[in-house]
Amino acid sequence: MIQDYLNQEYWNNSMQSYLQALGFILLGILIIKAFKKTLFKKIKRLTEKTDNSFDDYLFEIIEKFVLPAIYISIVFWGIQMLTLNEKMDYAISTGHKFVLTYFFIRIIASFIIMVLRTYVRRQENGEEKVKQIGGIIIIVNVLIWSMGILFLFDNMGYDVTAIITGLGIGGIAVALAAQNILGDLFNYFVIFFDRPIEIGDFVVVDDKNGIVEKIGIKTTRIKTLSGEELVVANSDLTGSRIHNYKKMQRRRILFSVGVTYETPSEKLKQIPGLLKEIVQKQSPVTFDRAHFKSFGDSSLDFEIVYYIENADYNTFMDIQEQINFEIFEQFTAMGVSIAFPTRTLYVRNENDQRFKIETFGREFQPSES
Known about the structure:
The chain is an alpha+beta fold. It has three domains: 2-179, no CATH class; 196-247, SH3 type barrels (Roll); 251-334, Alpha-Beta Plaits (2-Layer Sandwich), CATH 3.30.70.100. The protein has helices spanning 2-7, 15-48, 54-80, 86-121, 126-130, 134-155, 160-177, 179-194, 234-238, 265-280, 313-334; strands at 9-10, 13-14, 202-205, 208-215, 219-224, 229-233, 242-244, 251-259, 285-295, 300-308, 342-348, 354-360. A hairpin with a 5-residue loop joins strand 11 (342-348) and strand 12 (354-360). Helix 3 (54-80) packs antiparallel against helix 4 (86-121) and helix 4 (86-121) runs antiparallel to helix 6 (134-155). The radius of gyration is 39 Å and the shape is elongated. The model is unreliable at 362-369 (pLDDT under 50).
């Protein structure tokens, strides 16, 4: 009775053949699941204890892509045990090729991106640099998917050579029409590998300044100090002179202060030493020099140079502010006046009488009387 039931045929296959195919599929799935819950799980736990992240990524790729591909292949092999008509067999085989190609492309792309991220993380400021490889990941995915699709068409019997030739001719036309875009793309690679700037750097480009927020395939986005987002084409960025203040380890400060011409020479000679003493009180500061530099139009000018062992701009302003307070207090105590712009005019009237007029901070225009 049972044997008669097993020998019954439906769509050119006996019930026994269907049960064998189903049994093969279920047995294969159970074996893979048992492997995943036992040996695979134990090996994964061991790799999680290691400092190397490479094996963690590898097991993640196996779990996400390799095991699902095996499950689908088991189902395909089980169905292949049946006798199918030509159209059904072709459809199932084609679907299996599509699925395997998809997982194969994902495995290759994930592996290459994993290696790329691991390489970048090992460099200085690696975590910041990982944020910059978004454009490279897109390009890698496009290349791998293109090659995978061509590989699939080749296995399906299409003339891949003709397709590549057509893409080559079309690529030349696209390249000619999109020279600026390709130029920005090339300069994206220049920025990534040469690293003149990185995300988080404070930069000055021409008359614009701000913090680099994103480096894209075509443009780089900078958040300016005034709050707006500045979008700069990569070609314009690499063609400009970039001042990268994040790379600065110390800040050189040069400033001047002028005193009036009425200052006695004895006090003038004391000023460089006084300025040195004022600067050396600050921290973290390295004094360089202080000199009586020149005879200005309305002042005797002193030039001071020092270094701040910190690139932070707020630190510089705090120190310079304190130095300015000290200079004002010390000069006041010495009886030395800080100069401000003055102009002396000599005016002669019609009676040949000469007058001396001093103006402060603005030009004096005498009346004709």
